[in-house]
């Protein structure tokens, strides 16, 4: 058996599953092979396994039914129960370095959870990690209660660890805040967290993590609300994605209801209040993303009114109806089960990262086996990106400064300290975009108006383009483009990198850089890679964004650039030159091009593991690789995939991304003297955040060279 951690509650409603999710993510980030088991199922829907499948691609064995465990306990047959638990955990732990076991949480009517957890602790020879959550106690009172729980489990003093979850400001109980629906809850200061940490240490408990309460981690989806209330869905819209952060009952006149129309608000109003419905629709069209509208009283709007609301509904605004009156409906919303739904992959990801970010990295690293082969899982890769970008502390310019996704991403980057972002755009426009989205712009985020900056770059641009006959008038016209302004900032060393493309084409983003920044000495080609975060590992795909039909020589350069990029980001490069043919099984111009490219890459970089032509399945599936290319040191284990042309590469990366629900980070451009990275116009906020992180790391690497 690997090292086993039994994660058990020290109280009720402490967020036990959330703590397990975070521990799994924290261990995964360190490249530790982690497994999970929940030996005994909870009553009702058991969410742990489903959430782990979303967040960590783990498939733990099904837990023992609660009724079976209760029957054995009632008969006094503890040993049979423990034998079954040990067998289940042994199956789950195969091939793992660490097994995380979720203990039993106390439930109404059950008095044996603490006893069973103590028995499992001994039977599994596990280390105890207690999970607690403040309910109004002082730090000293809570730490004393946790110490009593550790003693009750038979753990000697100084041998138990603790995760303190959902710490709130002011000592109030977390559940009193109505997680996710309380806009007034303030941030928790580090001084509060430090006080709890010190209190735990005073009781000889190791604080593995002290996690602050954050409203956004508990925000339910509109879909969850509809399911909980049995609501009729008049228009689904984005009900499976929109989250409820506030609840507003609107039974007053429109002028008084306006204050309720804020981002993330669920508007509850009688079904015959067409004036409120129309006003809310206008607010949505004005850029305020309401969570949804809940119509009460068993009444539905006149079809003519709904016709007037169609433009707002087309933005994804959900519209629900219930038979209860407004007050009972609002009470039902407040009484919703705050736990994560089993299918809420997005929330599981947020919770895993929020807890993992607070886990003591020194503690997790101690579980790494010295001889085990370290792997780079997608969570580990993303975590390394963020940490490396923070250390780089680079200034990244974002020319699409008023674009909503870019504004939200820049705020996130600033809050997490990933980079120093500069938004180019009119300050009033940027702030209005942020207000409509409910985004708070950190003080560290720079807002610069490119129209005011442009005049100072006219002469430097003329100097750099005088060989092309550029005049001051032409330079002034070129600087009417914010991407050109941002590129000039880089050219004059006022910025370290640039990210654009949320609304502009790739050519528009790259052209100024090719004119002013140029390529790395000795390199004539700009290409791109995507980091494809598959469930088990991160792969590199290139070139899927820039070069339509590269020659054999260019294809070799792309292979070498992509291999270097992979290595720079912690991925051991094994390069597969892809084709519709493996080895000599096929012929034709396209296959010959890949053969020549492979030979050229090998000649230029003899130490590099590169092979081709290889079909995709031969490159990635070990069994197929052994059959089709038995002598290859790349086949079946490739990490870098070089596509023969843009058509093939772009189609493949998008097919993998969308069909397999894979996060793709990029495109990251290669070959420029300073990093400029292009976004997909369908990018998400998360995509922009990680592209900024990539850019910051590239800038650091360029500076070192």
What labels describe this entry?
Rossmann fold; six-stranded parallel beta sheet; alpha/beta; 4 domains; globular; Udp-n-acetylmuramoylalanyl-d-glutamate--2,6- Diaminopimelate Ligase, Chain: A, domain 1; 43% helix; 705 residues
Distance between the termini: 46 Å
* SS element count, helices: 29
Helix content: 40-55%
- The CATH superfamily label of the largest domain reads P-loop containing nucleotide triphosphate hydrolases
Domain count: 4
Alpha-beta classification: alpha/beta
Q: Note the main sheet.
A: 6 strands, parallel
Strand content: 15-25%
Name of the CATH class of the largest domain = Alpha Beta
- What is the radius of gyration? 28 Å
Report the count of strand segments: 22
**Multimer state:** single chain
Give an overview in words:
With 705 residues, the protein is α/β, with parallel strands linked by helices. The protein folds into 4 domains: 3-216 and 347-365, P-loop containing nucleotide triphosphate hydrolases (Rossmann fold); 222-334, Udp-n-acetylmuramoylalanyl-d-glutamate--2,6- Diaminopimelate Ligase, Chain: A, domain 1, CATH 3.40.1390; 379-516, Rossmann fold (3-Layer(aba) Sandwich), CATH 3.40.50; 527-671, 3-Layer(aba) Sandwich (Rossmann fold), CATH 3.40.50. The chain has 29 helices and 22 strands. The strands form 4 sheets. The chain has a 6-stranded parallel sheet with strand order 2-3-1-4-5-6, sandwiched between helices. A 6-stranded mixed sheet has the order 19-18-20-17-16-21, sandwiched between helices. Helix 22 runs parallel beside helix 23 (506-516). It is globular.
């Amino acid at each position: 058996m690997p090292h086993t951690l039994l994660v058990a509650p020290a109280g009720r409603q402490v967020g036990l599953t959330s703590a397990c999710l975070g521990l799994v993510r924290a261990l995964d980030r360190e490249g530790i092979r982690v497994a999970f088991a929940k030996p005994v199922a909870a009553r009702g829907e058991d969410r742990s396994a489903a959430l782990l499948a979303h967040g960590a691609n783990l498939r733990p064995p099904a837990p023992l039914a609660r009724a079976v465990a209760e029957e054995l306990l009632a008969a006094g047959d503890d040993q049979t129960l423990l034998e079954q638990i040990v067998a289940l955990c042994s199956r789950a732990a195969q091939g793992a370095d660490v097994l995380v076991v979720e203990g039993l949480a106390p439930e109404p009517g059950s008095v044996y959870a603490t006893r069973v957890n103590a028995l499992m602790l001994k039977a599994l020879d596990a280390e105890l990690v207690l999970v607690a959550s403040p309910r109004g106690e002082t730090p000293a009172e809570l730490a004393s209660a946790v110490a009593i729980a550790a003693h009750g489990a038979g753990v000697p003093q100084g041998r138990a660890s603790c995760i303190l979850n959902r710490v709130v400001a002011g000592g109030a109980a977390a559940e009193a805040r109505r997680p996710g629906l309380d806009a007034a809850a303030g941030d928790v200061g580090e001084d509060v967290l430090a006080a709890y940490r010190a209190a735990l240490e005073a009781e000889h408990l190791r604080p593995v993590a002290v996690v602050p309460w954050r409203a956004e981690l508990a925000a339910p989806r509109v879909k969850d609300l509809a399911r909980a209330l049995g609501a009729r869905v008049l228009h689904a819209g984005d009900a499976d994605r929109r989250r409820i952060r506030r609840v507003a009952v609107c039974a007053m006149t429109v002028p008084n209801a306006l204050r309720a129309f804020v981002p993330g608000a669920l508007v509850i109003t009688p079904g015959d209040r067409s004036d409120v419905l129309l006003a809310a629709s206008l607010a949505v069209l004005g850029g305020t993303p309401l969570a949804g509208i809940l119509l009460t009283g068993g009444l539905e709007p006149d079809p003519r009114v709904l016709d007037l609301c169609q433009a707002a509904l087309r933005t994804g605004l959900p519209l629900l109806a219930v038979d209860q009156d407004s007050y009972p409906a609002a009470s039902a919303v407040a009484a919703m089960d705050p736990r994560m739904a089993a299918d809420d992959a997005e929330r599981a990801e947020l919770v895993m990262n929020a807890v993992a970010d607070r886990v003591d990295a020194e503690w997790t690293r101690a579980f790494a086996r010295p001889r085990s082969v370290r792997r780079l899982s997608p969570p580990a890769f993303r975590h390394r990106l963020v940490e490396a970008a923070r250390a780089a502390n680079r200034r990244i310019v974002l020319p699409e400064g008023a674009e909503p996704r870019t504004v939200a991403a820049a705020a996130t980057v600033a809050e997490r300290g990933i980079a120093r972002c500069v938004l180019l755009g009119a300050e009033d426009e940027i702030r209005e975009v942020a207000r409509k989205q409910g985004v708070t712009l950190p003080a560290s985020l720079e807002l610069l108006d490119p129209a005011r900056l442009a005049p100072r770059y006219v002469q430097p641009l003329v100097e750099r383009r005088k060989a092309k006959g550029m005049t001051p008038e032409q330079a002034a016209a070129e600087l009417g483009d914010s991407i050109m302004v941002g590129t000039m900032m880089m050219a004059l060393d006022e910025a370290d990198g640039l990210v654009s493309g949320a609304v502009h084409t790739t050519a528009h983003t790259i052209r100024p850089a090719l004119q002013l920044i140029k390529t790395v000495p000795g390199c004539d080609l700009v290409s791109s890679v995507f980091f494809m975060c598959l469930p088990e590992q991160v792969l590199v795909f290139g070139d899927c964004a820039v070069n339509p039909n590269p020659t054999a020589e260019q294809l070799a350069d792309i292979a070498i650039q992509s291999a270097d990029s992979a290595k720079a980001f912690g991925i051991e490069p094994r390069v597969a030159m892809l084709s519709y043919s493996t080895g000599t099984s096929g012929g034709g111009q396209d296959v010959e091009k890949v053969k020549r490219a492979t030979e050229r890459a090998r000649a230029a970089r003899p130490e590099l593991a590169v092979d081709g032509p290889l079909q995709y399945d031969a490159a990635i599936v070990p069994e197929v690789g052994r059959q089709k290319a038995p002598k290859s040191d790349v086949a079946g284990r490739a990490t870098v995939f070089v596509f023969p042309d843009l058509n093939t590469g772009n189609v493949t990366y998008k097919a993998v991304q969308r069909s397999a629900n894979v996060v793709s980070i990029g495109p990251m451009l290669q070959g420029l003297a300073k990093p400029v990275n292009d976004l997909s116009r369908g990018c998400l906020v998360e995509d922009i955040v990680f592209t900024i992180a990539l850019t910051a790391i590239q800038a650091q690497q360029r500076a070192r060279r």
